[in-house]
Structures are given as structure tokens and as C-alpha cells.
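Lecture 7 notes: from sequence to structure.
We start with the chain below.
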Amino acid sequence: MEILATGVQKDERALLERDFAGRYQLRCLETFLTIDTVPLAAGYEIISTSVNAQLDADVLEVLAEGGTKLIAQRSTGFNNIDLDAAERLGLTVARVAYYSPYSVAEFAWTLATALNRRIVRAATRTRDFDFRLDGLLGRDFRGRTVGVVGTGKIGAAFTRIAHGFGMKLLGWDVAPDPACVELGMEYVELDVLLTESDLISLHVPLLPDTHHLVGAHALARMKDDAILINSSRGGLIDSAALVETLRAGRLDGVGLDVYEEEAGVFFFDKSLEIMTDDTLARLLTFSNVLITSHQAYYTVDALDQIVAATLSNVDDFLAGRAGAGTLVPKRPASPAPAP
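Predicted C-alpha cells for the same chain:
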């Protein structure tokens, strides 16, 4: 059986081919799966996609008609997949249930420290032999307040690093994490977290309830000199509202590894094209904004785990069982214990 993997990065390909060798034939394409490219998947019973695949109902219908039975996505996020349509079409969908939370947590801190200490500006200056310190003044993180929005595995890893810096810890989530509480985290309402935090980092999934969680109201609650970091999902932030906040001279720094309209832009070379996304173009003009192209997860450790989980999802499907990463078909709830 040959499996088609789409949206494969050059560094990722060697890891996929290594783990799949001797088990399954694998065809890797750099092309992302969209309505325009979905004919490439015709005849493949199993396909593996990246988080930037556009798997809406129209694409899923073409996949089902072409013989696809399993979509094994190489990410934890799955907001790009119409799960209801997949279930209706009889498609099995699986994701990576877990990979190194440290990859994303450490990268979020990389953005935060780079912004706080003006690293990009300083490095650019020294390359031009300009060794002045004007405009490079930062702040100690120690003693200041960090607000962690979402304290799952990644948020908890981010919190442990913040504790190492000696920061006051504020958290917001549907339920407190005992390990974070043990570190001294105080769980508060979101408005309180936004108002009191010097550094705010987002680590919640993108769901209907969290879409534009950080909009005009939330941004207005933040300190004028706060630093905002998003290494989770672009749709958590209302980008237009963020531009207006920055235009007003507010926020000390913004670090974005994700952007709500990143599909078709991130992971591509657009250097010879006109940027037609006015909001993204405007964000890139602010000297206190640092944008990277969804690379927080991109470590050898995380990719090893992602590839292993994808292979496990394929094994589970062919064995007729639902694994930890299976999203569709939904597994029935466990029966209540006998009285």
C-alpha cells in the first residue's frame, strides 16, 4: 500500500521516510491539500496532511469519491477539518494527540525574550556596525507578572519556565492545573489576567468560544507596555483590532508565530510577490512586532513524535481500531460503572 503525505517540509521528509521504511510505501509532496490540489490524492486510501491543508466539506467529498478512507493529520490542531462532513462521508480522521510541549513553550519564550530585549533590532544594527544602545532598553522578567491563557501541556511547560524566571503567575482555564497551582499560579478571570499581566501568552485551542478571544475589548484591558505572545492558533486574536491597538502606540511588543489568515501564505516563499493581505502587511511594519511562520513546533524532538504518532494512526486504522488520536468516527463514551 502506498500512502500520500502532503504539505511535507524538507526537514520533515527524511524523518517520515525513515519511520515508514519497510512498513508502507510513502509518497511525499510539498504541496498543501486544497480544493485545487485535491485531485493529486485520487486513488490513495490513506493520506497524511499538514495543519495548513484546507479540508472543508468540498475537499472531503472529492477525497471520498477518490477512494480515500483515512486522513492522518500531522498536528494536534484540527480546526482546518470539517469533522461533521468527514463523519457523514464515512472518512476516518486522526490527529497527533501529543508531541513535545516544550518545543512550543520554549519558542513562545524565545519570542518574548527577543521582543523584551530588542534582539532583532540589535542584531540588525550590529550588522551595519551600529553599536549604540539607544532604543534597546528592556526589562527584567523577574518580579513581573505573566498571564498564561490556557494551562494544558504547553501552557504548563510555559508556566514552569516563567516560574524559573521568578515571575508572579496568573492563569486562566476551564479548570486549574494542580502542577501550576503548586508552582504558585493564581487562577483568575480573563479580564483580571489581561489587566494585571506584563506578559501574556496564549495556549488555548481554537474553538468557536475562543475565536477572537483577544479582540478589541481584551486588547483595551491590557497594559500599554504589555507583551503579547501567540504561538497557538492565529484565530485567537482579532488581527484588525490588534493593528488599531498598535497604531495607537500601545503594547511594548507582540510576538506571533501564527496568523488567522496564514493559509496559503505561511510555509511559502512570497518574497517576489505583492502582499495582498493588508492586515499582515501592516503588522509587519511595526518595529515592536515579531512574526514567524508557524515554526514553534519545529524541533527534531517534536517531529520525531509527530511522525511516530502518524504511523501509529495508520496502524490503528488498518487494524480496525480507534487510537488515542482518532477524531472520526467518534469513540463511544465509556459505560458507567456498575453500582
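Points to note: Confidence is low (pLDDT under 50) at residues 332-339. The two ends are 47 Å apart (CA to CA).
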